[in-house]
Amino acid sequence: MTRAEAEAAVARMGGVICVDGVPVDKLGVALPKRPPPVRGKTPGERADVGATIRDHVAAGRWREAFRIAVKLRGLGDDAKVIARAQDGLARPDFCRQLGRDPDVLVEAGKAVLRRRWGT
Which of 63, 70, 107, 115 is most buried by its number of CB atoms within 10 A? Predict the structure, then answer.
């Protein structure tokens, strides 16, 4: 297809043609490139993990707050407390077999989350 035929098709149907792989509008002006998509984020999704944890803590959604916080790096000794609190919620019988009270573990984890991300 020649350029003239392509321009005639665009005029007939409307749209954009490509010349040598570059999109060109009806007037022959190259169109700007589309911005690259943001990977891993959906429109409206919060990118701030701390704000997400803060929202869960404020709403009392401890399971979700522990699930997100346990994956974070740089928490030091608090990482172990958060991981044990998550185990206390997910597997209380296993914690009892290890001689740990799951309610105490969960309350300790809540205290850490409140201290770090509490309102």
Answer: 70
pTM over the 0.70 mark: no
Count Cα atoms within 13 angstroms, Cβ side, for 93. Answer: 0
> Measured on CA atoms in the order 72, 73, 78, 82, is the torsion positive or negative?
positive
State the amino acid at position 10 in one-letter form. V
Tell me if 116 sits within 8 A of 106, measured CB to CB. Answer: no
Local structure of 90: helix, strand or coil: helix
Distance in angstroms (rounded) separating the CA atoms of residues 119 and 112: 12
Closest CA to 65 of 73, 76, 57: 57
* Residue 71: pLDDT over 80: yes
Taking residues 83-111, report their average pLDDT: 95
3-state secondary structure of 18: strand
d(CA 54, CA 57): 5
At 79 the pLDDT is 94
